User: Fold this.
Amino acid sequence: MSDYYDVLGVSRDASAEDIKRAYRKLARKLHPDVTDDPEAGDRFKEVSQAYETLSNPDKRALYDRGGGQQPGAAGFGAGFGFSDIMDAFFGQGAGAGGRGPASRTQRGQDALIRVDVDLAEAAFGAERSIQVDTAVLCPTCKGTCCQPGTSPQTCDICHGQGQVQRVVRSLLGQVMTTAPCPTCHGFGTVLPSPCQECSGEGRVRARRPLTIRIPAGVDTGTRIQLAAQGEVGTAGGPPGDLYVEVHERPHPVFTRSGDDLHCTLEVPMTAAALGASIPLETLDGTEAVEVRPGAQPGEQVTLRARGVEHLRSTGRGDLVVTLEVRTPRDLDDEQESLLRRLAELRGEVRPAGTLQPAHQGVFSKLRDRFSGR
Assistant:
């Protein structure tokens, strides 16, 4: 076993301060975190063993009498913590050095509310008046957190620092640690007379009116951000933001696909055969839907720019009208006679149905073309 005095590089009559100074110097040089020397770990352990023995008066006296200490009885990790390492490198505890007291004033949280809108409001935009249940500035203390006429006072325990320090003895000597003051909870001040209305928070919950502007083109799920309209922070801190999430109510006539609108228009059989101009009530008022002669069921007529306004650009979507041809029922004798006469004129008294294939492949089409079908 090496001589501990030689390990630390001090004489046998070295003082406790000389031993501590020598150890710190070697710890800075040999610690595994600061050197890549593969032998530094064993050397650091040896230095730590020597220091643990010689820094303790009783163990040093026993060592000087020849009692010594068994190798491995101490070393890296044996009574050697992170604070001790920091003390070896910097001469103070890891927690020393104050951050200063914490501020009672904090920014408020963001808030989210839902607003239901009609299709017309979503298409063209609207202005709505709503009630918001949120945190507002306390009307009694105005955010000071104290009863009127009083104010926060400096904490007697930490003297306004917001933290307290204590000295702990360790392997490397005395280590200074810090922690939030248990009396003022890190604020550095105490409230001798907290506001009774807000319980010392500087804010209370209340309902307040708010007018919001819903832009044209919003859809279900669109969120509108209103800066500084959220909850007021503690101790009169700045408010957070308010997010308004839009939910569009279903419309009895129109369905929406992006910025396009869709609807179904019933067309009498005669109008589909002869053609007609049929009025339709749209979001812009009454519009004429032009049905061409011979229109078929499922045929679509598009009214340009009669849909929803684009949210982030100019222009509007379209209104797509799907025709549903209505076959008459409960014909009277005269109507039935006229239809039979029409069928005779068209040779459709006993019409032979023509089957159309549901799907025809490319090769079938080529075969029919070359065979003259």
